[in-house]
Amino acid sequence: MSQAALGREVKRRLLLIAGRTYLNGSIEFSWLLDLVQQHPEAREKLQDVVGIEVVRRDRGALVYPELWLHLDGGGVRDCSWRACVHGPSSREARLFAALRWAVRDQIESARREWAAWRRDAYDGRSTVTCGVCGDVIDAGEPLHVDHSGLPFVMLARRFLARYDDGSPALTLQALPIGGYELADPQTVSAWRALHDSTARLMPTHALCNLRKGARGQGHARDEAHPTGAGR
Description:
two-stranded antiparallel ribbon
């Protein structure tokens, strides 16, 4: 299994068991412990740990799990499940995360607009179609947002190419909730303007959005809707 496929599977499993703190002795705790032991700083992370909590975060179009390690005597310690799967994140990955964070409101605005169209559709039927497979996204389904045409990664790399490596304009700072943001307001404004004027966003099914990145649109159509019918 590739690193990308492993990451998707771990994320899927974490979301399935999210919403609880698991204690030593449970099957879930054993699996989570095995996962955390793959962290580059596993020894420090696991010191005094008596429970592992899996939290689901819903931030508009972004849905992701978080791991919180509960300590003997009280207190918690955060743990990146991505670092457990992929090892330490590269600087480019951290910059991509900061760029996504900077335009999260643009993505969420598009999602809300498509969700409103779906609610206001004539005779109650959704008229919003998935930009990957072309089928209708029914009212009861999660509505995700992806980049059409120029992928986010390519747009981000074009923007980052404006700056030299180590430029103060690309200084990162950690977010209290985890992740990163750009510290320079001028850089953030320039990126937001470029994304707003250049990015073409599209609504997608959750599965299509997941599979498109790794395998392409043809596989997304075949696997998400093998019968060709909308869900």
